[in-house]
Amino acid sequence: MLQPKYIYMEEVDSTNDFLRRYEGREEMVVAWTDFQHAGRGQGENHWESERGKNLTFSILIHPDNVLAREQYVISMAIAATMRKYLAQALSEEVCIKWPNDIFVGDQKIGGILIENRLKGGNIEDCVIGIGLNVNQTVFVSDAPNPVSMKQLENKDWDREEVLHGIIDLFVWQMEHFRRDKIREKYRRHLYRGEGFHPYCDADGIFEAELVTVEDDGHLVLRDKQEKIRSYAFKEVQFLIGMPTSYPPEGGTLNP
Q1: What angle do CA 194, 182, 45 make, to 5 degrees?
Q2: Cα–Cα distance between 166 and 57 in angstroms, integer?
Q3: pTM given for the model
Q4: Cα–Cα separations (whole angstroms), residue 246 to 15, 70, 142, 203, 249
Q5: What is the C-alpha separation between 180 and 168, in angstroms, rounded?
Q6: 253: which residues sit within 8 A by CB, 6+ positions away?
Q7: Lowest mean pLDDT among 117-131, 187-201, 240-254
């Protein structure tokens, strides 16, 4: 059975950067910290995390036979793992918001950042960065709609216990790695998986229903005119907490 190596640090620039510098060759390494002073999200985004309150950690793996063109399946696997753990721990419905967030209702509880190193047409190394709001109750950044486990359940959580619970599920997932099962689990629990909802792209606001997320990570929507629309990351925004008739600046735009 896969035995992850755990590395705890009181503070670090970023757990992803730490593992990108790491030179060991263990099958799986988990680096976690009380505080990242250079933690980041997708693109130019930053992850707000109060010192010692939340989980900020990264996982280094060396996946076998995962092609570069299907690398999004790794994102599907960890997102499905996070959703399953939180669905078991919380009394609320938990879902996966494309491309990299974990939501409870319309609120963000966790985010994922994956950085792959390729060799030829395959993935050689994969660093999976995760931020999970655990015990923080006051959020001061302008990040939209955050929520924590403590806010939802009104209790303090043991962060290390939560970490090990997530990793145990992920180890099982990787040891029983089946692309079809991972895709099915991911797609079944997507945020806005049913019905028409408001979105915004370069052409403006529209309503659409979710069709699928492709293996390369593209989000596929079908609008009310039956037009199929395919988007890469940052090409479309989810409009949350606003009627579709309002302009984007009238409500919350959640990238």
Answers
A1: 70
A2: 11
A3: 0.89
A4: 40, 37, 21, 15, 8
A5: 21
A6: 144, 200, 237, 239, 240
A7: 240-254
